[in-house]
């Protein structure tokens, strides 16, 4: 399996996991008090924005060839780590 293909499959699996987390957080917010809901909904919105960024990076990765991937790899990996950190931070809030 090529390096690009490996990273594409790994990214797809991570996106699916993050989407499941978002769904769980949305459900949890509905069970909170009104004042807490507003704060958590803001957090969810930020996560949704990060999730959309991750999907865009994934689409960029999917459309790149092996040669382009090598030049993009570092930037995409850094952005992916940032998005991953945002989801990790959110776990403590929900």
Describe, in plain words, how this protein is organized in 3D.
The structure is a single chain. With about 90 residues, the chain is mainly alpha-helical. It has one domain. Helix content is about 90%, strand content about 0%. The protein contains three helices and no strands. Helix 2 packs antiparallel against helix 3. The radius of gyration is 15 Å and the shape is elongated. The termini are far apart. About 5% of the residues are buried. The mean pLDDT is about 90.
Helix and strand composition category: mainly alpha
The backbone outline, from C-alpha atoms, is elongated
Q: What would the average pLDDT be, to the nearest integer?
A: 88
Total domains, how many?
A: 1
Based on DSSP secondary structure assignment, what is the total number of beta strands?
A: 0
What gap, in angstroms, lies between the N and C termini?
37 Å
Beta-strand level of the residues, as a percent range? Answer: under 5%
Q: Rg, please?
A: 15 Å
Q: Biggest sheet, in brief? A: none
Helix content: over 70%
Set down the secondary structure blueprint.
Layout: H1 3-29, H2 34-63, H3 66-91
Helix pairs in contact: 1-2, 1-3, 2-3
Keywords:
94 residues; mainly alpha; 88% helix; 0% strand
Summarize the entry for a quick read.
With 94 residues, the chain is mainly alpha-helical. 88% of the residues lie in helices and 0% in strands. The chain has one domain.
